[in-house]
Amino acid sequence: MPHDPTILPADLPVPVDDGACAHLTGVPVPALALPSTSGASFRVDRVPGGAERLVLYAYPRTGRPKEDPLVPDWDLIPGARGCTPESCAFRDHAGELRAAGAAVAGLSTQDTAYQREAAERLHLPFPLLSDASLELTRALGLPTLRVAGMTLLRRFTLVIRDGVIEQCFYPVFPPDGHAAEVLTWLRDHR
User: Fold this and answer.
1) DSSP 3-state assignment of 159?
2) So where are the chain's domains?
3) Labelling 71: which of 147, 164, 177, 184 has CA 20 to 30 A away?
């Protein structure tokens, strides 16, 4: 049966909180401009479009339908599987997130051309940002994993307000329910 990145297996391992994001809440975000699927650079320290907050969800990598996963045991890596369902959930809640005062952007270490294909195929109404150079990852000490010789981001979400990380969600599980979790937090912290 071909690999379908939109479907989450029922037996995915649950990631544990290893403290890799414990240092992030309250940290100023560096004034970095990352390549974006919108075609323009995206400053991660600024909240776009008059929103109060930026929800920046990070994920390891999106897959493509009918392509094999990056490594055969991808589904056994806690927190690896679920990038496409997570992006689709943020897409499906985009209007509600906007109404709650938040702009949304996705973040991975994949290059912009790869991300653009996913953004178009999934009809994402927000940009995906590329940290392929690991500039933001290094500046903030973001959690990563090494798979198949690549440095990938672990799955987490930053809520940025006034250039400072106000909230960090880590670990994120299940990925397809995370957008609703973020929405609840935003509504509770207006």
Assistant:
1) strand
2) 33-188
3) 177
